[in-house]
Specification:
The chain contains 8 helices and 11 strands. It is α/β, with parallel strands linked by helices. The protein has 2 domains: 132 residues, ATPase, nucleotide binding domain (Nucleotidyltransferase, domain 5), CATH 3.30.420.40; 97 residues, Nucleotidyltransferase, domain 5 (2-Layer Sandwich), CATH 3.30.420. β4, α2 and β5 form a beta-alpha-beta unit. It is globular and about 55 Å long.
């Protein structure tokens, strides 16, 4: 049976919508939305992709969404959009980590792999990746200041071999390239521009090629992976502590 997946990524300012059929990307729309909310365009461009490719919403066999970590507001927009479509069309939903998508887009490597995204507040969202016969897996996920990420990388590598390679995947690595280059005692490589951010097409292709790496969720169980508490939650906690 033909698989037709409509996929959304709103986890970063570089949002995207893609249509994937049987592990082949039919079309993808990507837009840097630093000064524009994702909600302005994702449904409109989803309909455009379907129309241009000759399909209707009723032809879809599933939905895919990048569920974080990333922008809190962006994640909520993407998940709410997918939840609404899933309820209306009675479709399964595949939810995928933004960091896992970036690792998949880079591909397997003999190096230690760390996927890093800017978490603002001088912190990074990150994950160490492991690959096995069922595809990429997140071995460890964290949100840390860049200096502590360096400490983590150093702790994972051999203290007796300063040439042991590690690859930093994503914009977070590039953002603090100078710090990592100076503070990490491993032989570092930085991924290219194609893997700076996750993408909707990458998420759907991960579902197609490595289904064991992907979580299938019922529509009421779709959840964002925030990794850290929001400012509102931190403020509530502070207020509670004062009382």
């Amino acid at each position: 049976m033909q698989q037709l997946i409509l996929s959304f990524d709103t986890s970063t300012p570089c949002g995207s919508v893609a249509l994937v059929r049987d592990a082949a990307v039919l079309a993808e729309f990507r837009l840097d939305v630093k000064h524009r909310p994702h909600s302005d365009y994702i449904l409109r461009y989803a309909r455009m992709l379907l129309h241009e490719c000759g399909y209707a919403l009723q032809d879809l066999t599933g939905l895919c969404v990048v569920n974080g970590p990333g922008s809190f507001t962006g994640l909520r927009v993407g998940l709410a959009t997918v939840q609404g479509l899933a309820i209306g069309l009675s479709l399964p939903v595949y939810q995928v980590s933004s960091l896992l998508v970036m690792g998949f887009m880079h591909g397997p490597s003999p190096c230690l792999q760390y996927c890093l995204l800017d978490a603002r507040k001088r912190e990074l969202y990150g994950a160490r990746l492991q690959w096995d016969t069922e595809g990429p897996k997140i071995d460890q996920m964290f949100v840390l200041p860049p200096a502590q990420v360096c400490d983590l990388i150093n702790s994972h590598s051999s203290p007796y071999d300063e040439t042991e390679p590690a690859v930093l995947i994503g914009y977070g690595g590039e953002l603090y390239r100078e710090l990592f280059s100076q503070a990490c005692h491993v032989n570092l490589c930085f991924s290219g521009p194609a893997t700076q951010y996750p993408s909707a097409a990458g998420a759907a292709l991960l579902c197609a090629h490595w289904p064991a790496s992907v979580q299938t969720a019922k529509v009421n169980n779709i959840q964002a992976v925030y990794v850290r508490a929001s400012d509102a939650e931190l403020q509530r906690g502070h207020t509670t502590a004062l009382h």
